């Protein structure tokens, strides 16, 4: 069962990630900041999943048959790729956070700087986990590949390595990722305040809100129809809910797929402190393999969440796989280019609302004139203006088009 699952993960993950990498490298228009991170994520996914055949062979055989060199390089490459994977996902969340939440609502990175950040991530991971290549080795008598921490009097080397490794590899990037997506989630939910319809105005120009359209958690999980909304407003609301749902899915996927291997790393440290003759380990081999398979599954989910849900990437895939040119490929990434549109739409809605209220106050003030002819003329001018100004009624109630983030 383990070998079959590992084989399926290896084939599907390799195809998906190679498609992402080919799309970014083949089309110059796709070489944006976020897509540079996605390219690095695809490379890390491919290298991470390339270890699957060795793991599958080790599980199919009761003894380690790949030699001491592979025993050292295999866990070292897995730790390095896992570090790069999590920090690349964190960098994507930080870039999204800056584009959507932090003024001036655009990425401060360039493709060159994004490339330097990814190279720095690989270099840091290679140095941080260099001891793993020396501490893993083939056990001469048991013929297994295992980890043996060196023991020195007065120095707890296993503790000095394991705690920082777990913190910088798993805890810190996952905490930053959850924080940034939580800020984005709050920003999107705050736009529900714009889902109001000013059907009537009082003499002082304040809107009497008769209907409020809010996004609830139930609507995010279970989409329902809204009889009080027009077809256009319901389409915008559904796209808005879809963006929030994908953000929640990103966070849940990362946490659920990397927490098991984090716990396993801590248990490896606990078992490594036991005496050599003590075999009552907390961790067994199948525990480590299944936790590793869950992490391998993340290499398949990443291209689905970050690539196949994008219209830009789907258009690239159609051209790569089928040679289709009917769909035009966008020149910029949907994750970065259109985040600024969200804020521009939000700011424009505020400007339209203030402008419309000032016009209504002006119309009311002129209608109270003592001169009947002047009052009649003022009403004609106000009505002509208000009817020709599309933002005075309907557009104010429209939320920013958050669907642009994912180009749905």
From TrEMBL:
GO terms for molecular function: neuropeptide Y receptor activity. SUPFAM superfamilies: Family A G protein-coupled receptor-like. The chain crosses the membrane at residues 6-25, 37-61, 73-92, 113-136, 156-179, 246-268, 288-309. Its main location: membrane. It is found in: Membrane. It is a multi-pass membrane protein. One of its GO terms (cellular component) is plasma membrane. Residues 16-306 form the G-protein coupled receptors family 1 profile domain. InterPro entries: GPCR_Rhodpsn (IPR000276), GPCR_Rhodpsn_7TM (IPR017452), NPY_rcpt (IPR000611). The keyword GTP-binding does not apply. Keywords: G-protein coupled receptor, Membrane, Receptor, Transducer, Transmembrane, Transmembrane helix. PROSITE patterns: G_PROTEIN_RECEP_F1_2 (PS50262). CDD domains: 7tm_classA_rhodopsin-like (cd00637). Belongs to the G-protein coupled receptor 1 family. This is G-protein coupled receptors family 1 profile domain-containing protein. It comes from Graphocephala atropunctata.
């Amino acid at each position: 069962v383990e070998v079959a699952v590992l084989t399926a993960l290896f084939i599907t993950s390799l195809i998906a990630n190679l498609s992402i990498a080919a799309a970014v490298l083949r089309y110059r228009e796709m070489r944006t900041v976020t897509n540079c991170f996605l390219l690095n994520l695809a490379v890390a996914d491919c290298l991470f999943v390339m270890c699957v055949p060795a793991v599958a062979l080790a599980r199919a055989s009761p003894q380690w048959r790949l030699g001491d060199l592979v025993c050292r390089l295999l866990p070292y490459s897995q730790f390095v790729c896992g570090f790069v994977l999590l920090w690349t996902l964190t960098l994507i969340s930080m870039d999204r956070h800056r584009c959507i939440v932090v003024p001036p609502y655009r990425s401060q990175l360039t493709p060159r700087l994004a490339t330097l950040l990814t190279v720095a991530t690989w270099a840091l991971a290679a140095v941080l986990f260099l001891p793993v290549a020396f501490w893993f080795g083939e056990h001469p008598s048991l013929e297994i590949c295992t980890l043996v921490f060196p023991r020195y009097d007065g120095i707890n080397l296993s503790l000095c390595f394991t705690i920082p490794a777990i913190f910088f590899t798993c805890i810190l990037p996952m905490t930053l990722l959850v924080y940034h997506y939580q800020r984005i989630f709050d920003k999107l939910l705050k736009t529900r305040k714009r889902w109001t319809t000013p059907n009537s105005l009082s003499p002082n120009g304040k809107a009497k809100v008769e209907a409020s359209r809010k996004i609830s958690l139930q609507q995010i999980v279970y989409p329902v129809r809204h009889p009080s909304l027009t077809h256009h407003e319901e389409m915008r609301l559904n796209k808005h809910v879809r963006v929030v749902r994908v953000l929640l899915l990103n966070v849940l996927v990362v946490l659920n797929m990397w927490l098991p291997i984090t716990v396993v790393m801590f248990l490896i440290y606990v078992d490594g402190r036991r005496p050599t003759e003590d075999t009552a380990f907390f961790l067994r081999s199948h525990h480590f393999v299944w936790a590793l398979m869950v992490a391998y599954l993340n290499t398949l989910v990443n291209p689905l969440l970050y690539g196949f849900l994008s219209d830009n990437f789907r258009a690239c895939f159609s051209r790569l796989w089928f040679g289709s040119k009917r769909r035009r490929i966008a020149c910029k990434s949907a994750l970065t280019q259109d985040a600024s549109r969200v804020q521009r739409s939000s700011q424009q809605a505020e400007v339209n609302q203030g402008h419309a209220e000032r016009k209504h106050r002006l119309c009311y003030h002129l209608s109270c004139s003592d001169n009947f002819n002047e009052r009649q003329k003022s009403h004609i001018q106000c009505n002509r203006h208000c009817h020709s100004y599309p933002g005075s009624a309907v557009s104010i109630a429209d939320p920013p088009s958050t669907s642009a983030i994912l180009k749905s």
